[in-house]
């Protein structure tokens, strides 16, 4: 009997119906076809499954002695065959192509992220290495300094010295100052180690001593206030505050004055000759001048044979041990030149205005007698102007501690592109933290005294000279969001020319001593422990405001008319 005849035959008895039901139950428990491990085509797979189903159907029929399940079995085979034919029509190949493309993109992203992580780790490691070298160099230099003055070392002096960032110093064995000030022995320490050579018979061997005190609102009556913090009831509040006006009071009479003058000026040369003669005849002051000025005065009149000068750089290094006071005749550039002569401590500077703007020259030259009288008798207000200490570290110094001589600047250090037509590309770090990459004409790192100079022209803020800070001002940055920064004075800045820079950079220090920075070279800047004390005509704040009003005409405009509309 054929399969078609079996499918058409109906069940005529209850026994047959029962057999059909039992056969259906048995068929529900029949195992599925065993998967083939190979990868056959869809057509062969459909044919093989059909053959297996036919074999299973035949076995079930022989065992149960019934043929009533044939129709359901054939319909099941047709549905499975249709399912496999549908799978053959799905775009499996195109799906696999998309997956391959997606995996390739993910591998590219992973590679880029890995390169970024490696670059960041390398930059952090390099920054840590530069910091370690710089700290090692500073520790090495600190050990070479002279330490002494046992009677002058006390807890109160250490606190005051830390507030002014002045190192303890040394050699004069005069008495220790009071607890409200700091003595000249700490300010004018000889930085050069070793014994001091025997002084020339024309030079003064002992300096005048002085002390610095902190007055309240410029008060000179000796009553001083100090900052202290109250923690009452868990609240932090400043109970009293002094305005930190610093007064200098001589403990012994000044004996030696150094004159620094603007060159190529007849009016300055005439005034210098007059002031030198007046100090010698009326004050019995010993006078030092530059070799150029000494030659000019002696050529003019042989009676100026009492003036003293120096012959070489070694004598310049010892000037601060002999000079009690510096008098400058010129503008701010003359003050910068005077400060550059002193690589360590700087005596107080009295700056007479004979230049153009004069942010640091408050004294009028017409009243030099009264001004010098007030300064020599004291006390008088001073401004402690911080200086930047700069080190140029070449790429060859990475494996060993090799640096050039430190350079001290009073205004600013400028890193620019020089004659190159490419943008300056600089990497900047603050201590061990990455700051930014500078892409533009350059960068200005300025003191607060230099905030009214080049930094102001580049868009930086004007800052009071006694504010402890470092100005970070870009020069024409190729970015709309690069604004200037003011950083705390205790940080160390590192500016490096990266290896992938298109050209070299050039660094200038107070407008001179230009040095080329090739790829791999770095410039380290920090606040020097040796500030420049400049005498004030009134006090630090009054002189600063007067200078920006008179020199820059700050916020100068016509007043609003009073006869306009009113509320």
UniProtKB/TrEMBL annotation:
Its EC number is 2.7.1.23. Keywords: ATP-binding, Kinase, NAD, NADP, Nucleotide-binding, Transferase. Transmembrane segments: none annotated. The keyword Transmembrane helix does not apply. Pfam families: NAD_kinase (PF01513), NAD_kinase_C (PF20143). PANTHER family: NAD KINASE (PTHR20275:SF0). HAMAP family: NAD_kinase. This is NAD(+) kinase. GO terms for molecular function: ATP binding; NAD+ kinase activity.
């Amino acid at each position: 009997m054929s399969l078609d005849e079996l499918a058409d035959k109906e069940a005529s008895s209850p026994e047959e119906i029962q057999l059909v039901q039992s056969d259906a139950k048995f068929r529900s428990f029949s195992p599925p076809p065993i998967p083939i491990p190979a990868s056959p085509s869809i057509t062969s797979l459909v044919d093989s499954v059909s053959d297996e189903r036919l074999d299973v159907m035949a076995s079930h029929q022989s065992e149960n002695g019934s043929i009533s399940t044939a129709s359901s079995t054939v319909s099941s085979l047709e549905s499975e065959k249709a399912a496999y034919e549908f799978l053959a029509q799905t775009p499996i190949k195109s799906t696999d192509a998309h997956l391959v493309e997606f995996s390739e993109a993910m591998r590219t992203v992973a590679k880029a992220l890995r390169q970024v992580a490696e670059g960041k780790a390398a930059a952090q490691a390099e920054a840590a290495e530069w910091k370690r070298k710089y700290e090692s160099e500073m520790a090495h230099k600190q050990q070479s300094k002279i330490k002494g003055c046992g009677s002058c070392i006390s807890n109160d002096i250490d606190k005051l010295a830390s507030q002014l960032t002045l190192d303890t110093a040394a050699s004069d064995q005069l008495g220790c100052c009071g607890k409200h000030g700091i003595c000249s022995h700490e300010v004018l320490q000889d930085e050069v180690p070793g014994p001091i050579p025997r002084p020339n018979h024309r030079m003064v061997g002992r300096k005048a001593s002085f002390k610095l005190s902190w007055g309240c609102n410029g008060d000179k009556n000796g009553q001083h206030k100090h900052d202290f913090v109250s923690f009452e009831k868990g609240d932090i509040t400043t109970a009293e505050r002094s305005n930190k006006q610093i007064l200098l009071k001589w403990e012994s009479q000044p004996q030696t004055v150094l004159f620094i003058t603007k060159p190529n000026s007849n009016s300055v040369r005439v005034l210098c000759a007059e002031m030198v003669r007046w100090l010698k005849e009326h004050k019995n002051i010993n006078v030092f001048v530059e070799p150029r000025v000494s030659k000019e005065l002696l050529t003019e009149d042989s009676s100026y044979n009492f003036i003293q000068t120096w012959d070489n750089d070694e004598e310049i290094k010892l000037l601060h041990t002999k000079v009690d006071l510096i008098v400058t005749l010129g503008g701010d550039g003359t003050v910068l030149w005077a400060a550059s002569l002193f690589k360590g401590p700087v005596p107080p500077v009295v700056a007479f205005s004979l230049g153009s703007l004069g942010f640091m020259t408050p004294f009028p030259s017409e009243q030099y007698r009264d001004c010098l009288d007030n300064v020599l008798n004291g006390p008088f207000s001073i401004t402690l102007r911080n200086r930047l200490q700069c080190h140029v570290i070449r790429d060859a110094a990475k494996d060993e501690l090799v640096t050039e001589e430190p350079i001290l600047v009073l205004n600013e250090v400028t890193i620019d592109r020089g004659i190159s037509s490419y943008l300056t590309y600089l990497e900047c770090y603050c201590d061990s933290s990455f700051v930014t990459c500078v892409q533009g004409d350059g960068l200005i790192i300025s003191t607060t005294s230099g905030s009214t100079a080049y930094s102001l022209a580049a868009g930086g803020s004007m800052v009071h000279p006694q504010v402890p800070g470092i100005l970070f001002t870009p020069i024409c940055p190729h970015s709309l969001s690069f604004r200037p920064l003011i950083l705390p004075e205790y940080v160390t800045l590192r500016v490096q020319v990266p290896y992938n820079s298109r050209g070299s950079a050039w660094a200038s220090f107070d407008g001179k001593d230009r040095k080329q920075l090739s790829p791999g070279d770095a410039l380290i800047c920090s606040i020097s422990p040796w500030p420049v004390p400049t005498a004030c005509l009134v006090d630090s704040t009054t002189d600063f405001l007067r200078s920006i009003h008179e020199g820059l005409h700050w916020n100068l405009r016509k007043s609003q008319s009073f006869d306009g509309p009113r509320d």
